[in-house]
Write a structure and sequence with these properties.
By secondary structure, this protein is mainly alpha-helical. Helices cover 72% and strands 5% of the residues. The chain has a two-stranded antiparallel ribbon with strand order 1-2. The two termini are 27 Å apart.
Length: 130
């Protein structure tokens, strides 16, 4: 459970940085508290998309992933961000990604920031003893 919370917080931080850096990714709300709650909801949707859909897409595109030496992962991340935007639109969460190239940049930002934040957050495993 603790790992789930930490991963959700890492995704929320990464999505917040993407919203802050890129004009094409928008997250709106009445006040700061509403925007923070919206960000947590978007992070949960993004986490579910990454757990359920991303492995299937990577399996289907495995030959292309190998052929492009993993660069297709940027496209897969962009598609996951666009899918998250679409799902958020369906459930009336005010999060929107404006286009494919914005999603590619956003996916790159989210991947880098999420990796950096997950390094800083504990992962739920017991600490090693020297």
């Amino acid at each position: 459970m603790k790992t789930f919370v930490f991963r959700t917080l890492a995704n929320a931080a990464a999505l917040a940085v993407a919203v802050w850096l890129l004009d094409g990714i928008t997250l709106t709300g009445h006040n700061t508290g509403h925007r923070a709650l919206t960000l947590i909801i978007v992070a949960l949707v993004f986490g579910v998309v990454n757990v359920l859909v991303k492995p299937l897409v990577q399996l289907v595109t495995l030959p292309l992933l190998i052929l492009t030496l993993g660069l297709l992962t940027l496209v897969v991340n962009a598609l996951m961000l666009l899918l998250t935007s679409w799902i958020c639109d369906l459930i009336d969460v005010p999060f929107h990604v404006s286009g494919f190239w914005t999603a590619v940049l956003g996916g790159l930002v989210v991947a880098v920031v999420s990796w950096a934040v997950s390094l800083a957050l504990p992962d739920g495993r017991p600490a090693e003893r020297a």
